[in-house]
Amino acid sequence: MQSPVRLYLVPTPIGNLQDITLRALEVLREVDTILAEDTRTSSKLLKHYQINNSLESFHAFNEHKKLTSLIDRLSKGETMALISDAGTPSISDPGFLLVRACHENQIPVECLPGPTALIPALVNSALPSDRFVFEGFLPAKKGRKTRLQAIKEENKTVILYESPHRLLKTLTQLSEELGGDRQASISRELTKIHQETVNGSLTELIEYYNNNTVKGELVIVIAGK
Ligand code: SAM
Hints:
alpha/beta; Cobalt-precorrin-4 Transmethylase, domain 1; Methyltransferase, Cobalt-precorrin-4 Transmethylase, Domain 2; 2 domains; five-stranded parallel β-sheet; 10 strands; 36% helix; binds S-adenosylmethionine
């Protein structure tokens, strides 16, 4: 590659394997090393596209430990692509620490544009998409109440990531804090066979998910104040 970039952040599909750009595939083929959150998960994608590049693990539990040696290798000219299990690295996934360390060490970084769950969920929600706030996952315990109170006062559309087993609890707490009339949307299993978007008030969504099993990955989008 002619580019001075040493580290690429490469978005990968959030379900449908076709959702990967031609440039993402080219970068994954040409870098010296692919850093993957879960090498077994990423092997399936790479096998599908017949990419046989060397894979190395880089996840939330080893990212601090590996930082110095990765920066050393990148400084010496090695090229790397960071991928996560799904979507854009560094968005509720490892990446930020490595990008920051690269910038501190004058190592050129480029994030390719590509799949991420928050944008299709926002657009599907039919809620205003001109200004929005991405809140990622709410804390499970400490700081949760403060974040819920901040969401209550937020004027912009708010996007949350959530796990299916916590959905009803979170919707109920949102409804208690923001009022049951607040409009919201749940996009589930985006790009997959059972994808579904349900829009309605928080009260309607709670009722819907009390009567329907919640499976798979999902995004909550909430109307601003
Ligand atoms: N880096 C990813 C991105 O760019 O969207 C996010 C990774 S985060 C660990 C995983 C969360 O993303 C899931 O719990 C869910 O909230 C959301 N997510 C990922 N894939 C999804 C999909 N196909 N449909 C709905 N939500 C999804």
